[in-house]
Write a structure and sequence with these properties.
By secondary structure, this protein is mainly alpha-helical. The protein is 85% helix and 0% strand. The chain has two domains: 162 residues, no CATH class; 158 residues, no CATH class. Helix 7 packs across helix 12, helix 10 packs across helix 11 and helix 11 crosses helix 12. The two termini are 32 Å apart.
């Protein structure tokens, strides 16, 4: 017994003095700190340095997207690559400028007509509705006791002051927002001009610029860059297909709802709503909520309640299906897709909503093909022990 106890104590001492767990813990801490430092560097670059280089990034993306068409035109026509690139870029910017000018004029004309109709709208719809509600409350208060009426009058005064404060705060915030946007207009114009000029340099000397940048990387870095490029192009295509499916679903829902509510130009409104729904900051609420409130104020309760119900249905369906559809198209589990979209939107806004899931997909792909080793993707082992052999059988 004493010998067995000594052996057990000896084994415990050997386990305590075994350097392997300490080495594994040290390796884990070093690896964690390494990736944490890199994550901090990438975050600072994307958060603070990327806006400074955004015109050049957009110009490079334009050149990359036009590269196949430029090569095709240069191969099928006597024009050289330089001439084809310049002509195609001029046509692109001319078309975009014409489209933006047309849309801007339409928006300005629509806003002018809407603002000019505001006095008639107030006198013909809002003021009668408010007067009707006031008369209904007066009739209700007439049958109440003096104490209750004094309490309701005080509550009405408090509510009016609260609404006035809210309107004043919203007005001041709107003025600050307009002033901030107006102050950034020169920078936006300058950034747009720099982007246009840089895009001409990128499309003309695309191969020279990219070759110079690639030569600055080591051999493994070049290989990894081309692997990421090939996979990201396919991922972006699948990502766009996923959101095209969501846009189509929103278009069908809005079209069906507006047809049931007997709204004219239902398909055009549904198309605009589906496009706006892709933008996370806006969404369908930008169109549906003001429209429903306006319909209720003007007395069109059928349309107002119908639009509110339609908005709720679209929101529930979108929030339920978006992680599943996007995850199925890009190969991510829906819960991981939802987590990445939420964290990305919180950290980087609109771009993080799309960039985080794509980044995770690329990392998973690189880990799967063995280019990097971030996490273990093997199947978990069954923790259930095997059944014992029956007695009498060897």
């Amino acid at each position: 017994m004493a010998a067995r106890g000594a052996a057990r104590r000896s084994g415990t001492e050997v386990d305590l003095l075994d350097p392997k767990p300490v080495e594994r813990m040290r390796a884990f801490i070093i690896k964690f700190l390494y990736f944490a430092i890199w994550a901090g560097i990438v975050y600072c670059l994307l958060k603070y340095a990327m806006p400074l280089f955004m015109p050049f990034v957009v110009a490079f993306v334009i050149a990359f997207m036009l590269k196949p068409l430029i090569n095709l035109i240069a191969a099928k026509t006597p024009l050289g690559r330089r001439s084809s690139a310049i002509i195609l870029l001029v046509v692109l910017y001319a078309g975009l400028g014409t489209l933006l000018t047309f849309v801007s004029i339409r928006i300005v004309v629509w806003l002018g007509g809407w603002f000019s109709n505001l006095p008639a709208l107030y006198s013909g719809a809002v003021e009668p509705a408010v007067s009707q509600v006031g008369r209904a409350f007066e009739a209700l208060f007439a049958g109440l006791g003096p104490d209750v009426r004094s309490f309701l009058d005080l509550a009405s005064e408090n509510l009016s002051s609260a609404v006035s404060s809210l309107v004043s705060g919203v007005s001041s915030s709107a003025i600050d927002l307009v002033a901030g946007v107006a102050g950034r207009v020169p920078w936006i114009v300058a950034g747009t001009l720099i982007c246009i000029i840089a895009s001409f340099f990128f499309v003309v000397d695309y191969y020279n610029i990219t070759s110079f940048l690639v030569r600055q990387l080591p051999q493994r870095g070049r290989h990894l860059l081309f692997v990421i490029k090939d996979y990201v192009v396919g991922t972006l295509f699948r990502f766009g297909r996923a959101y095209l499916l969501l846009m189509t679903l929103t278009f069908v829902e809005v079209s069906a709802g507006l047809l049931i509510l007997r709204v004219p130009s239902a398909f055009l409104i549904a198309l605009v709503t589906a496009v706006v729904d892709i933008v996370p900051v806006l969404g369908t609420g930008t169109i549906m909520i003001p429209w429903a409130l306006y319909s209720l104020i003007t007395g069109n309760y059928f349309l107002g309640i119908g639009l509110a119900v339609l908005y709720l249905i679209i929101t529930v369906v979108r929030q339920t299906l978006e992680p599943r559809v996007v995850g199925a198209q890009i190969g991510l589990y829906p819960l991981l897709t939802l987590i990445c979209m939420f964290i990305g939107a919180q950290l980087f806004g609109f771009w993080g909503l799309f960039g985080f899931p794509i980044t995770l997909v690329v990392l998973v792909h690189l880990n799967r093909i063995g280019e990097i080793n971030l996490f273990n993707t093997g199947a978990p082992k069954d923790p259930t022990p095997p059944p014992p052999k029956p007695l009498g059988k060897q």
